[in-house]
Amino acid sequence: MSLDLDLMIHSIPAALRGAGITVVMWIGGGLVAFAIGFLVALARRYGGRWVRWGLAGPIEILRGTPFLIQLFLLYYGGPFIGLRLEPYEAGFLGTSIYGAAYFSEIIRAGFEAVPRGHVEAATVLGLTRTQTVARILVPEMTLLILPSSINMMIVLLKETAVLSIITVPELTLVVTAIGSAHFAFVEALLLLALVYWGIVEAASALGRGLEAGLARYRMV
Amino acid sequence: MSWKYFELLALGAGVTAIISALAIVFGLAIAVPIAAASLARNRLLHRLGRSYISFFRGVPLLVQLMLLYYLLPGISINLPNTATAVVGLALCTAAYQAENLRGGFLNVAPGLVEAARMVGLGDRQILLHIRLPIAFRLVLPAIVNEAILILKSSSLVSVVGVSELTRMAQNLSTSTFKPLDMYTMAGLLYLLLNWSIAAGGLGLERALHWGRR
């Protein structure tokens, strides 16, 4: 096994494009997932019994089935109910929905970890529900959910590799294609593994730094 | 959906369950020495353990599986696809389980170890009769959790050509043109398996509750 340096250098532009798509799916999908998760957590907290029950089912299903099955259902099953999506669209939507289920649980737990007395105090002082959420719950829980949110983002980055199976031309698909075109599969995959490893390590170091930097604002 | 398709999917679910169970057991076996290495005072051992954990937790499982699938024949180890899949899943879950074991080991109450020392137990006895059993009980919920994660991740071994649940659903949806039915059914079977693991885990936790206040 010899590493072909020339091949590696020529593959850099294509690999960078793939990495770009990976980052879009990861950060973009992750942000949308967080936003949906936040709304779902709010709806579960304030929406009454039927909303709570109605949302618990889908979340359980999304968290209990493989991401790959969800993607297949969306991408190959979608057209049968009039949902014809490009791989990019299916990938982005899939990542957002999948991530939203996990983020909604993280945020729900965050809400619950805010001491009841703080919320009651806000009510007694005459804060509206919106004010209570915006000024008490969100600021207090932000630091609490930071570690699990960072962890979830790292999980999502690794899950984006699965998008290659529904032919989203992200990093994994591009690099394995280069590898198979040049009969250098092992080299390509090794490089790919190292790149992901690097990104994950960098992301977790960033997360740890963020946590340490924000620790002094901790209220709960 | 006809009964025949359901039978095939259930067969796939069986393969999924077996692959995941083997991966969890082998993974635990690999995790013990890795956790020990990562706790070791020897700097080299510690570095090795940490690197293993960091690598296998930092690389997407899909990439690990493909790498293994192409790497093994390259170094003239020829395994059947299913065995490669089990090895791949086990190597990955070992990293997560090692991290859990390490946490459990560090969380054994120091008072218990001190009490054992006071009544005259040696280091080896303390390890075997106090530290390990308590650590194992502490990490049991995490192992159950990991089993659920591995069950879901095992869908990725469909890519290296193992006819488990996901692959079966894939094959059936191309041959019947009914992807909605097949993948929905497959999803339900995954849910069912996960609920069984969760229920079994709860039962096991209760059964191991003895002697605990």
Account of the 3D structure:
The complex is a heterodimer of chains A (220) and B (213). With 220 residues, chain A is mainly α. Chain A has helices at 5-10, 12-46, 48-64, 67-77, 87-113, 116-124, 129-159, 171-181, 185-214. Chain A has one domain (5-217): MetI-like (MetI-like fold, Orthogonal Bundle). Chain A contains nine helices and no strands. Chain B is mostly helical and 213 residues long. Chain B starts with a helix and ends in a 6-residue tail after the last helix.
List the topology elements.
The complex is a heterodimer of chains A (220) and B (213).
Chain A (H helix, E strand, L loop, with lengths): L4 H6 L1 H35 L1 H17 L2 H11 L9 H27 L2 H9 L4 H31 L11 H11 L3 H30 L6
Helix pairs in contact in A: 2-3, 2-5, 2-8, 3-5, 4-5, 5-7, 6-7, 7-9, 8-9
Chain B lengths: L2 H37 L3 H16 L2 H14 L6 H26 L3 H9 L4 H31 L11 H12 L2 H29 L6
Helix pairs in contact in B: 1-2, 1-4, 1-6, 1-7, 1-8, 2-4, 3-4, 4-6, 5-6, 6-8, 7-8
Features:
A: mainly alpha; MetI-like fold; flat; B: mainly alpha; 8 helices
Brief summary:
With 220 residues, chain A is mainly alpha-helical. Chain A has helices spanning 5-10, 12-46, 48-64, 67-77, 87-113, 116-124, 129-159, 171-181, 185-214. Chain A has a single domain, classed as Orthogonal Bundle (MetI-like fold).
Mean pLDDT of chain A: 91
Give the N-to-C terminal Cα separation of chain A.
55 Å
Largest sheet of chain A: none
Q: Please, what is the average pLDDT of chain B?
A: 91
How is the main sheet of chain B built? none
